[in-house]
Design a protein that fits this description.
The structure is a single chain. This protein has three helices and eleven strands. It is an alpha+beta fold. Strands 1, 2, 3, 4, 5, 8, 9, 10 and 11 form a nine-stranded mixed β-sheet that branches. A two-stranded antiparallel ribbon has the order 6-7. A hairpin with a 3-residue loop joins strand 1 and strand 2. The chain is globular.
Length: 216
C-alpha cells in the first residue's frame, strides 16, 4: 500500500447485534483487518473489538469499498458463517457507478482471475491459470454524465473480482485507482458499495437480510 493511510474517523454504524452476530457498515478508506505494519493497525475489526472483545472475523471488503460486513460473536457462529461464505450459501449484492453505458440491460461476466504478481496488489484475467470467477450484473440507471449505476451479484469471491471484471468489459468502476482510467484516479472514492447481505442465522438457520444504501 504505497499511499499514506488516512482512515476515516467517526463512530461505526451498526445494523444488528445479537448473541451470535454483529453487522456493521464499513466506510470507504478503512481496512477490514490490520495491515502488516503499525501504521496500518487501524481497521474495522480493531475498532469493533475495542468495544466488544467477542467479535470474530468472517470475511473482508477491500479498503476502498464500503458497505455491509458481518462478524461472528462466538466460535460456533464463526464456523457457521465461514462455511456459508466458502460454499456460497448466501447472497451478496453490490452497487457501483461505472464509466460508460452498457449496451445490454443485464449480463454475466465469466473470466478467471489470478494475482498479477509483478504488480501486486493488482489482479488480472488469466485463462491458463486463473481461478473461476463469475459476476452477474444489471443496469439500475444510465446517467446523463455518461456513467451508469449497476447492481452486481458475485457468484464467487475472488480478490478485486468486481473491479477487474467491470474493467475487462470496458466499464471500470469510477474512482478505481488500480483499474480505472488515469484521469479518474483522483476521484473522491471508489464507487463500489456492498449494499445487501442475506444469510442463514447461525442460531436456527432462519434467513436474515442486512442492507445499507449506497452513499453515492
Amino acid at each position: 500500500m504505497s499511499a499514506a493511510y488516512h482512515p476515516p474517523l467517526g463512530p461505526t454504524e451498526r445494523l444488528w447485534t445479537d448473541a451470535s452476530l454483529l453487522v456493521a457498515v464499513k466506510p470507504a478508506g478503512l481496512l477490514s483487518v490490520p495491515g502488516k505494519t503499525e501504521a496500518l493497525a487501524d481497521c474495522l475489526l480493531a475498532r469493533l473489538r475495542g468495544e466488544d472483545p467477542d467479535v470474530r472475523l468472517v470475511h473482508r471488503l477491500d479498503r476502498d469499498t464500503s458497505g455491509v460486513m458481518v462478524f461472528a460473536r462466538s466460535a460456533h457462529a464463526q464456523r457457521h458463517l465461514g462455511l456459508q461464505f466458502e460454499r456460497r450459501h448466501l447472497e451478496k449484492r453490490y452497487v457501483a457507478r461505472v464509466a460508460g453505458h452498457p449496451g445490454a440491460d443485464a449480463g454475466q461476466i465469466d473470466l478467471p482471475l489470478t494475482a498479477d504478481w509483478p504488480n501486486r496488489p493488482r489482479q488480472m484475467v488469466c485463462h491458463a491459470n486463473g481461478r473461476p470467477a463469475r459476476t452477474r450484473w444489471r443496469v439500475l440507471s444510465r446517467d446523463q454524465d455518461g456513467s451508469a449505476r449497476l447492481a452486481l451479484e458475485p457468484e464467487t469471491g475472488r480478490s478485486h473480482q468486481l473491479r477487474v471484471h467491470l474493467a475487462e468489459i470496458g466499464h471500470p468502476i469510477l474512482g478505481d485507482p488500480l483499474y480505472g482510467p488515469a484521469e479518474d484516479a483522483k476521484a473522491r472514492r471508489l464507487m463500489l458499495h456492498a449494499e445487501c447481505l442475506r444469510l442463514r442465522h447461525p442460531d436456527g438457520g432462519a434467513w436474515v437480510t442486512f442492507e445499507s444504501a449506497a452513499p453515492f
